[in-house]
Structures are given as C-alpha cells and as structure tokens.
C-alpha cells in the first residue's frame, strides 16, 4: 500500500501526559499537512510542511503542540501536557510538489482520547 | 477568513434516487475545490478535484460543478446505492491550505 499512513491509529492517554503521532506521506509528495477533526465538524488545518520546512501554523496550534519533518519525509506531531479538549481525530495529508494547489491525499487518522 | 457551508447537514433517501449536495464558500479566491467521502471513524477519501479554471468534473456516478464567482459547488450522485452512505465533505484550497465544511451525512436505504 503506497498511500498515506499514520501511527498509531488509536491512542488513549491520561490528562497531562505527552503523546506523539507519526505520519508517512506518499513517497514522492513533498507537501505534508496536519489537520484536527472533532465530532460533527470538518477537519481544521493545523500546520503545513514543504519538504522539511514548516511554512504555516494555525492559531489552533498552541504552544503545547509541535510538529517536525526532519528529513522531509515522515512527520511527527507531539502534544505536551494533554487536555481533554485535545480529544479528536488527527489527520495527515500529502500532496505533490509544483506550483499552485494539488490534490491532497489523506491518511486514516489517529484518534486521540484524553481521559 | 474563508467559510464553507454545506447544505443539507443530513439527508436520507431510498436506493436509486438521484441527489444533490450543496457547498458554498465566502471567498472566491481559491485554487481548487475538493469533494471527499468519510466513513464513520475513518480518514478522508478524495472523490473529485475541480481546479478553479474548471466548471465540472465527473467520475462514474459522481459529477461535481463549480461556480467560483458565486461561491458555489454541487455534488450530484446518480442512482444512489446503500454503499454511498457516508459523510461528504467539501473543501476549498485558498492560500496554502484546505478549508472544510461540516459535511453532509448521507444515508441511502435499501
């Protein structure tokens, strides 16, 4: 399977703990996006990488959130000191390089539950 | 700030009906518009991508149209099937990211 993969698929953690999610994009895609989706809502943009450069961050990405893409391939999203409000589906997407906007392909998501 | 609205929020139809899902957006400065399907608890599957210069795209029983000047898109599903039951999301690509609507939850009954 050469699609976008995410790990883990599910994570249950206690409030105050740190969690880290991983995303592996489609191999030739140099753009990688993170979104968050809560129940009954559409996904909301968190951050975006082109190669290893983090080009944009949403106001939703508080200081407790950090994302990296060290070698321009896989990316990690870390949440420190988790809160119950962080419970959501975290989605990763990737797209081809080139000018303008390209079709985004999404992974299966990581569902986070903070108890 | 871009806002995307989808109507209706939910739709229930008997198998075989043709149906239309609506999407509107407030800022017409978009690069493209994508329609996605999401099954419960799953990720998003891209259905159709319409570039801003295009008026419509077709894939099988699906046809999506785009009227950028009026800020509207429609997704037409022909001869609906129970397997089409899912949430359908519309998203527009502006400066650097997708902005999503809340989706239309579709239920097709046998």
Describe the structure.
The complex is a heterodimer of chains A (115) and B (110). Chain A is mainly beta and 115 residues long. Chain A has strands spanning 5-7, 10-13, 19-24, 31-37, 44-50, 53-57, 65-68, 75-79, 88-95, 105-106, 110-114. Chain A contains no helices and 11 strands. In chain A, the strands form 2 sheets. In chain A, strands 2, 4, 5, 6, 9, 10 and 11 form a 7-stranded mixed beta sheet that branches. In chain A, strands 1-3-8-7 form a 4-stranded antiparallel beta sheet, with no helix packed on it. The mean pLDDT of chain A is 92. Chain B is mainly beta and 110 residues long. Helix content of chain B is 0%, strand content 58%. Chain B is built from no helices and 11 strands. In chain B, strands 2, 4, 5, 9, 10 and 11 form a 6-stranded mixed beta sheet that branches. In chain B, strands 1-3-8-7-6 form a 5-stranded antiparallel beta sheet, with no helix packed on it. In chain B, a hairpin with a 4-residue loop joins strand 9 (86-93) and strand 10. Chain B is globular and about 40 Å long. Chain A binds chain B through residues 6, 33, 35, 40-45, 48, 55-56, 89, 91, 93, 100-101, 103-109, 111, and chain B through 4, 31-32, 34, 36, 41-46, 49, 89, 91, 93, 96-103.
Overall residue-averaged pLDDT value of chain A = 92
Query: pLDDT average of chain B, as an integer?
Result: 94
Protein chain pair with the most extensive contact, residues per chain: A-B, 25 and 23 residues
* Separation, N- and C-terminal Cα atoms of chain B: 41 Å
Let me know the number of strands of chain B.
11
Number of alpha- plus pi-helical segments of chain B: 0
Indicate the proportion of strand residues of chain B: over 45%
Question: What composes the largest sheet of chain A?
Answer: 7 strands, mixed
Give the total of beta strands of chain A.
Answer: 11
Structural classification of chain A: mainly beta
Shape of chain A: globular
H and E string of chain B: EEEEEEEEEEE
Low-confidence segments of chain B, ≥5 residues, pLDDT <50?
none
Strand content of chain A: over 45%
- Rounded Rg of chain A: 13 Å
Please write the string of helix (H) and strand (E) elements of chain A: EEEEEEEEEEE
């Amino acid at each position: 399977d050469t699609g976008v993969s995410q790990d883990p698929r599910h994570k249950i953690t206690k409030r105050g703990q740190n969690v880290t999610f991983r995303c592996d994009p489609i191999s030739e895609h140099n753009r990688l996006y993170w979104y968050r989706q809560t129940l009954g809502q559409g996904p909301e943009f968190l951050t975006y990488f082109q190669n290893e450069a983090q080009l944009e961050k949403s106001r939703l990405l508080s200081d407790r959130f950090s994302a990296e893409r060290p070698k321009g391939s896989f990316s990690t999203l870390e949440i420190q000191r988790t809160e119950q409000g962080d419970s959501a589906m975290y989605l990763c997407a990737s797209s081809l390089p080139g000018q303008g906007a390209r079709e985004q392909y999404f992974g299966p998501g990581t569902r986070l539950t903070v108890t | 700030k871009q806002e995307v609205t989808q109507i209706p929020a939910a739709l229930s139809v008997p198998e075989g009906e043709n149906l239309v899902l609506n999407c509107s957006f407030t800022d017409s400065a978009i690069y493209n518009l994508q329609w996605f399907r999401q099954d419960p608890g799953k990720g998003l599957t891209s259905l159709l991508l319409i570039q801003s210069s295009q008026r419509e795209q077709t894939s099988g029983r699906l046809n999506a149209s785009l009227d950028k000047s009026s800020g509207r898109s429609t997704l037409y599903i022909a001869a609906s099937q129970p397997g089409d039951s899912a949430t359908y999301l519309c998203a527009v690509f502006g400066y650097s990211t997708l902005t999503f609507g809340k989706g239309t939850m579709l239920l097709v009954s046998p």
